[in-house]
Amino acid sequence: MHIDTETYQRVLGDELRTLRKQRGWTRKQLNSRLQSDISLQTLATYELGTRQCSVVRLVEICVALGVPAHQVLARVHERVFGDAPSGHLTVDLSAVVADSRPELAPLRRWARGRLAQLPPHRSTDVHLDLSALEHMAQLCQLSTVELIRTLRELDNRPR
């Protein structure tokens, strides 16, 4: 897998800017909530994706925004590497039903119900957005990142 670092930085910055704006904050207001002292220009370059953000700095910004860093990174990863619509993960319901891992039991019940509702000859693929994945992860008592990883593994298994 090739990582386009410029694209990844730009998408990460876009996610951080979106979260800040959702709270109605200016960069100055976010900066005042940070634990360390950084310039507004540095914060702007993170949001624009023109400067790399260290992991510790990313976690600090996410804490100030009230969002776990792993959720932000999961969104970025999906946007950069996902083949589903932006911010979505494609999941094969049949693969979920066929899997026997105990932690996926709530997801298996949901997938069985969805499959029963599908008309004949319809694709068993569904697109799940991040909020659906976060909810399903809670039901399965997994982190969102762990659930996404598990669902991707299911997609790569021979059927």
Per-chain topology:
Elements lengths: L4 H18 L4 H6 L7 H9 L6 H11 L3 H13 L6 E5 H6 L6 H13 L7 E5 H10 L4 H13 L3
Antiparallel strand pairs: 1-2
Helix pairs in contact: 1-3, 1-5, 8-9
Largest sheet: 2 strands, antiparallel
Side-by-side strand order of the widest sheet? 1-2
| Order of helix and strand elements from N to C terminus | HHHHHEHHEHH
Helix fraction bin: 55-70%
Unreliable stretches (pLDDT < 50, length at least 5) are: none
Mean pLDDT: 87
What amount of the residues lies in strands? 5-15%
Number of DSSP helices?
9
Derived from helix and strand composition plus strand pairing, the structural class reads: mainly alpha
Tally of extended strands? 2
**How large, in whole angstroms, is the Cα Rg?**
18 Å
Measure the end-to-end span. 23 Å
Given the C-alpha coordinates, what overall shape results?
elongated
Description:
It is a single chain. With 159 residues, the protein is mainly alpha-helical. It is built from 9 helices and 2 strands; from the N terminus they run αααααβααβαα. It has helices at 5-22, 27-32, 40-48, 55-65, 69-81, 93-98, 105-117, 130-139, 144-156; strands spanning 88-92, 125-129. It has a two-stranded antiparallel sheet. Helix 1 packs across helix 3 (40-48), helix 1 packs across helix 5 and helix 8 crosses helix 9 (144-156). The model has no long low-confidence stretch (mean pLDDT 87).
